[in-house]
Design goal:
single chain; alpha/beta; four-stranded parallel β-sheet; 13 helices; 12 strands; 41% helix
Length: 335
């Protein structure tokens, strides 16, 4: 159900108590519409952990919490996910042959996940797509409609690099396992995403609302209008255990909740958006907190080029200030 701009803004700023009641109502509506043939797409992160608790509270323990183990999750996330209450199902990414798919194989075959999914897709199309001259020119220069979809000039060097970049890892390792689960079971998903995770997700939520019953992506996102502080407040008020990767939940001087550890815990090796992060970025933190994972990550290769070298091409530092002799960085004990 598409929302007008004022409706979306209104939902974002609803009182917290109303957001909770609205989310619970959307959970019931989704369950009833699909006659109970539903499941939770469970990541083990704070949002899906809060949503799991709410689903168990509203519907009980029978709804499957389905965790896709891509091999790229923080080990703390995997341990936490496997402690999920009620019905828990673990699935894995697979190639069409049925063999389990791994990130190293995807990188070797398709390229590194760098800059953004949108940028990687444009580069892949320009390098390998069978494009019309008009569409190619549009991706490079725009057309009479403008330059909204143009590949930024600063990233055009990827068109000539020895290595490839690609958005395929998200499709193969994250989307496909859940699509396969839905085909095999007929169940429809609850997804624990919030509108403030990104501009794109906020924009999509404004176009669809919480429960999407038709179209290419059928889903329920009961926490759609929530913010991260809303989610953390719900977790604190209900004494819900979260993964240790997030550290502790504290409040700032304005009463807003935040986590002292990782803020987001998607795929550990993902480079999407890393060029926008302040130091210490995700890879610098990984060197301190998960050195074995870091070494594996930096030495992944595409066309003989190491991931670390490709990250440096994007201006993404991978060594810590501590190694540069500038600062002792102890993230494990940082507040």
């Amino acid at each position: 159900m598409k929302l007008n701009e004022w409706q979306f803004s209104q939902r974002k700023y609803l009182p917290y108590e109303i957001k909770v009641k609205l989310a619970e109502a959307r959970i019931r509506e989704w369950y009833e519409n699909w006659y109970g043939e539903v499941y939770l797409s469970y990541s083990g992160g704070v949002d899906s952990t809060a949503l799991l608790y709410m689903i168990r509270k509203v519907l009980g323990d029978e709804i499957p919490a389905v965790f896709s183990n891509t091999g790229l999750e923080f080990p703390e996330i995997v341990r936490h996910a496997r402690k999920a209450s009620g019905n828990y199902v673990e699935i894995y990414p697979k190639w069409k042959s049925g063999k389990r798919a791994y990130f190293s194989e995807v990188v070797d075959q398709f390229g590194f996940p760098l800059i953004s999914k949108e940028t990687a897709l444009k580069v892949r199309k320009l390098r390998h797509g069978n494009l019309s001259d008009r569409y190619r020119n549009y991706l490079l220069y725009g057309d009479e409609r403008g330059k909204f979809g143009v590949l930024a000039k600063k990233w055009r060097f990827f068109l000539a690099t020895e290595y490839e970049i690609s958005e395929k890892c998200c499709i193969i390792l994250k989307k496909e396992p859940f699509a396969r689960y839905e085909r095999e079971t007929g169940r429809k998903p609850y997804i624990g995403i919030t509108q403030d995770e990104s501009f794109v997700r906020g924009h999509l939520y404004a176009k669809t609302g919480c429960n999407v019953y038709t179209g290419s992506t059928i889903k329920s996102q009961p926490l759609g209008p929530w913010t991260r502080p809303d989610v953390l407040r719900y977790i604190v008020e209900h004494d819900i255990e979260i993964s240790s990767a997030y550290g502790d939940i504290w409040q700032d001087e304005f009463g807003q909740y935040y986590t002292t550890g990782e803020q987001r815990t998607g795929c550990m090796f993902c480079g999407f958006g890393a060029h926008l992060e302040a130091e210490p970025n995700r890879f610098q933190r990984m060197l301190i907190t998960h050195p074995n994972h870091y070494n594996i990550c930096m030495n992944l290769k595409n066309n003989g080029v190491r991931y670390e070298d490709a990250l440096h091409d994007c201006g993404i530092p991978t060594k810590t200030w501590e190694q540069a002799g500038q600062l002792s960085l102890d993230l494990k004990n940082a507040a």
